Amino acid sequence: MEFQGKLKSYGSNHMTIDIPEGFDIQEIRRKTLDGMLAVDFYEKAKITAEQRKLIFALVGDICQHTGYPDDEMHIKMKYYFMAETGCEVFSLARNKVTKEFAATYIEFIIEWCLKENIPFMYREYHLSADINRTLFIYLKYRACFVCGKKNSQIAHVETVGSGRNRNKIDHRNHHFMCLCGEKHHPEQHNIGIDTFMKKHHLAPIKLDEQTIISLGLMSKKQLYELNKEEISNV
Fold first, then answer.
1. Pair 114, 34: CB distance under 8 Å
2. Cα–Cα distance for residue pair 110/55, rounded to 1 Å
3. How many CB atoms lie within 10 A of CB 142?
4. What is d(CA 56, CA 51) in angstroms, rounded to the nearest whole number?
5. pTM recorded for the entire structure
6. 3-class DSSP state for residue 15?
7. Nearest-5° angle of CA 208, CA 182, CA 131?
8. What sign does the dihedral 117-73-146-132 (CA atoms) show?
9. Other C-beta atoms within 10 Å of 71: how many?
10. Of 17, 32, 136, 207, whose CB neighbour count within 10 A is largest?
């Protein structure tokens, strides 16, 4: 049994912990030994329970699609990650890796799923990974920020303007997100950008010049002309 509580007060030989709502205190009493309860303390900088849960959920999605057993797929993903990053053998047990390491591993699994066309459920990935890095992966693979659907559309957050020549737009000044054409891009237009972003807790991202070119939003020639114009105006 595992739960997260907040330390409320403590003394030389006692402490008080606020437990989450809905926690079954009778169950914990049944699991005590002679009235004694074993409590583990985790460092804030270490992998969180939410990160571990997310990793297992993602690997579970891969297993459901590929048919591999859970244990075998967990081993495969670890070795893929070690081969990609050069890191040593690692454990996802409590206190064994940092939150940053776990976030990077989550991002690796998400990108691997997108590259291999593995369908997965969108489970609020930004709660356990760096949201900007995670959403950049979604944008890179044209996956909807809301539902994860592939082959989605890159959308401007700031209004471009009807009839405006998009080849003349300086995309460096815009924020972007990726939305599926079947549901979420139309919804964004129907309810308005502000309401849409609040509803889905989105954080659209800005892109550097290299990424703008790689995504086909602007050509090298267009960026060159814009940079030349900026220099001449200084």
1. no
2. 10
3. 16
4. 9
5. 0.66
6. strand
7. 35
8. negative
9. 10
10. 207
Q: Are 150 and 142 in contact (CB under 8 A)?
A: yes
| Cα 51 to Cα 46, 58, 102, 186, distances in angstroms | 10, 11, 7, 32
Q: Please, are residues 110 and 80 in contact by the beta-carbon 8 Å criterion?
A: no
3-state secondary structure 168-225: HCCHHHCEEEEECCCCHHHHHHHHCHHHHHHHHCCCCEECCHHHHHHCCCCCHHHHHH
Whether the Cβ atoms of residue 102 and residue 53 lie closer than 8 Å to each other: no
pLDDT of residue 112: 93
Q: Fill in the amino acid letter for 212.
A: I
Q: What distance in Å separates the CA atoms of residue 140 and residue 96, rounded to the nearest whole number?
A: 31
- pLDDT lower than 50: segments of the chain: 163
Q: Is the Cβ–Cβ distance between 139 and 215 less than 8 Å?
A: yes
- pLDDT, position 88: 94
